Amino acid sequence: MYKILILPGDGIGPEVMGEVRRVIHWFTEKRGFSCVLEDDLVGGVSYDKHGVPVTDAAMAKALASDAVLFGAVGGPQWAKVSFDKRPEAALLRLRKDLELFANLRPALCFKPLVKASSLKPELVEGLDIMIVRELTGGVYFGEPRGIETLPDGTRRGVNTQVYATEEIRRVARVAFDLAGKRRGKVTSAEKSNVMESGLLWREEVQWVHDHEYPSIALDHMLADNCAMQLVRAPKQFDVIVTDNLFGDMLSDEAAMLTGSLGMLPSASLGAADKSGRAKAMYEPIHGSAPDIAGKGVANPIASILSFAMALRYSFNRGADADLLEQAVEKVLTDGIRTGDIMEPGATKVGTAGMGDAILQALTALSGK
Ligand code: NAD
Questions:
Q1: What CA–CA distance (Å, rounded) separates 197 from 191?
Q2: Which sign, positive or negative, has the C-alpha torsion 90, 93, 98, 104?
Q3: Measured between alpha carbons, how far is 28 from 32 in angstroms, rounded to an integer?
Q4: What pLDDT, on the 0 to 100 scale, is given for residue 42?
Q5: Which of 75, 128, 227, 352 is the most buried (most CB within 10 A)?
Q6: Is 222 helix (H, G, I), strand (E, B) or coil?
Q7: How remote is the CA of residue 286 from the centroid of ligand 1, in Å?
Q8: Active site includes 191?
Q9: Helix (H, G, I), strand (E, B) or coil at 160
């Protein structure tokens, strides 16, 4: 019996997570997926009620769960709140306290949406890349950091890129494990030509490969070249592993190869404990979309595909994850679209309509 914590958050978060709940319910009823669902507030709604974007009680529930399903946080009404209490600060605390050091972002091009990419169809058709970004180290966290005023009155901003052996090795292992279940190839991206931390990154990834995963193919690529190759010939990649800063950019770039923000899931994983279970959080890439919140038009697919990742990575139910992804593909093939992915001749639906269509496709595909 798995424990799932749902944190819908702000804006369209509760709307899209409502559809995820229906999908979870379907898997419970039809496929024997057994779980206990809990709920809590996160983000601006938590700040309004409790004065903090995530409470200690919600954190305790997150720590006790097998997976956290996160909607989205933020909105203009909290723009003046101090940085440490902003809705987005909840995400940083969750990642830090759950020690989620590996961020997985698939860039998967669904055939019916091939025209939504800014690249030529032949470059993206069938595209299936996984970007693994180190999430808790590097320049976003390194010390010293800050802005100082110099004696002549001008200022200097400092951030420090720093990585230690184990931080690199553990995220490299995540990438090699994933590649072993996919097409068996890892590309590691860094700037070893100009950064010592990049050279260490390259050497440590190579060490993990040579000692633990010799049968997986490993390439090293400079991060700037990787950015270029992603738009030149993206299908050459299987799994890309990279640091926090380069991963931030490369994962956004790769994600947009496939079209709309409303389609893109993600997973953040921690280290496995002795029983093999790892802490994990699953969330769409998009934010709270205040411009469309409350209208019932948000695309729930990114959140639903995030649950598919949870089925695969937290609940060891790969066949169910495949089924859910096939259901999404079927709905798209049938020409059903929310506004963000609408095309001429397709049938436009709202958030609940997309949820209905995916449930129907699940039933049709599974024969239940
Ligand atoms: P956003 O992702 O919320 O929206 C960008 C654009 O994409 C908007 O036009 C929106 O309507 C559209 N969009 C996003 N998701 C969609 C969906 N599921 N269906 C249809 N259309 C969708 O980014 P933003 O506007 O830059 O940020 C809004 C708020 O969200 C800010 O407060 C920001 O800090 C926050 N944010 C939160 C997260 C998170 O919770 N992980 C991530 C990014 C931004």
A1: 8
A2: positive
A3: 5
A4: 98
A5: 75
A6: strand
A7: 5
A8: yes
A9: coil
Do 86 and 115 share a domain, yes or no?
no
- What pLDDT was estimated at residue 215? 98
Lowest-confidence region among 6-10, 120-124, 183-187: 120-124
Atom of ligand 1 nearest to the CA of 72: 40
Residue in the structure block whose two tokens are 């496929």: 31
Both tokens of residue 131? Answer: 């970007």
1 and 65 part of one domain: yes
Q: What is the pLDDT of residue 256?
A: 80
Amino acid at 214: P
Residues 117 and 67 in one domain: no
pLDDT digits (tens, 9 = 90+) for 177-215: 999 989 999 999 999 999 999 999 999 999 999 999 999
Catalytic residue among 96, 181, 224, 368: 224
Shared domain check, 122 and 84 = no
Residue pair 297/60 in contact (Cβ under 8 Å)? The answer is: no
- The residue whose CB lies within 8 Å of the most ligand 1 atoms, and thus the one to mutate among 103, 261, 306, is 261
Which letter does DSSP use for residue 126 in this model? Answer: T
CATH at 163: 3.40.718.10
Residue where a domain terminates, one of 222, 239, 269: 269
- Residue-level length of the chain: 368
| CB of residue 138 inside a 6 A radius of ligand 1 | no
Q: Yes or no: say if 164 and 154 are a contact pair by the CB < 8 Å rule.
A: no
Residue 340 appears among annotated catalytic residues: no
Provide the pLDDT confidence category of residue 81 given band limits of 50, 70 and 90: very high
Token duo for residue 281: 């959080």
Structure tokens at 72: 């989205």
Residue 287, ligand 1, Cβ within 6 A? yes
Residue 6 and residue 144 in one domain: no
pTM comes to 0.92
The pair of structure tokens assigned to 145 is: 């950091």
How crowded is residue 130: how many other Cβ atoms within 10 Å of its Cβ?
25
75 CA: nearest ligand 1 atom:
32
